[in-house]
Amino acid sequence: MGQLSLKQITKTFGTFEVVKDVSLDVHEGEFMVFVGPSGCGKSTLLRMIAGLEHTTDGDIVIDGKRVNDLAPVDRGIAMVFQSYALYPHMSVFENIAFPLRVEGAPAAEIKSKVEAAAQILHLENRLDQRPGNLSGGQRQRVAIGRAIVREPEIFLFDEPLSNLDAALRADMRIELTRLHKQLGATMIYVTHDQIEAMTMANRIVVLNAGDIAQVGAPLELYHKPQNTFVAGFIGNPRMNFLPVTCTEVTGTGVTVDFNGQRLHVEVEAPASLRSHLPGAPLTLGVRPEHITLGGGNASMTVTPSVMEYLGQNTIGYAPLPGGEETFCFVLPGTQKVPADTPIDVTFSTADCHLFDSDGRALPR
Ligand code: ATP
User: The whole model's pTM is what?
Assistant: First the structure.
């Protein structure tokens, strides 16, 4: 149990449509992450699933039952917030026990469930303490404990790691993945952090201004983004987008003109593109980590204005003609590339993506 279906969900605040006709199935036991930039509607979507916000239109179905009109407590879900929402005057034990006390559960059941949750979360030795004496990571684990004791069909997480420092976030990512394996429950997790999405999710939903831009497994989104939005959002630093002109469509792909070089990219060309030939403007996408100093079958000269030497890799940023876009490249290790000096970089068309003028990917 723990299957969720969203059927044509819409949410408007006044005249502002923040979630637009979203349909989605989350499978039983799946770790599903909603990711997207600030304001894309991911928290609103989660809050509608939780019952903290009404839908303007559409149905929310949990395990075959429409739950739109059910109170949050009757939906079989438990939600963990960024703010922890712990009671400072209560012990860790009482904080975790709180939902069971509200339900009027017997003392023995409360004790065994709280202790079991504390063990899963490595909080056994903290049960007598107050939240004020705990680290941020421990406080978040208490909040998760309070969700676990309710034994929900579906866990909902709203940016639960946002208040933690980078090292603790990395630890908690591993903890949450372990917890998901151990409990086998359906988990829906909202974040704007693509590393959290990529590392924890079975599948990711990328949201853009209230619309689903793509749903897929993490590496599917990285290797086969369906549009420039997903291509730019998944991957860090973001994919470079270079304007090119289509010169030929063949049985094996599309040939483009890039700064006078003819590059053949193996993608499927839609019939609509053929009718626009020749000269259709396209966008060539190449990830910074696919740029090399020689060896590729395409090259360009850039003048990096900023170089970052991180030890594990070397990152360069160079303005592109036109001035607004910045070209980024990531070279492995420490490389002696000075700033403000022209340099020839190369890449391979096998690593490239092509997008039409509406930003849709030509399938690879
Ligand atoms: P963030 O990562 O910044 O939380 P988000 O993707 O979770 O962003 P939401 O919190 O879902 O975005 O908000 C989506 C849009 O809806 C935003 O523009 C927000 O200002 C607006 N919004 C959210 N709640 C309300 C509300 N109660 N009344 C009016 N507008 C709202």
Answer: 0.92
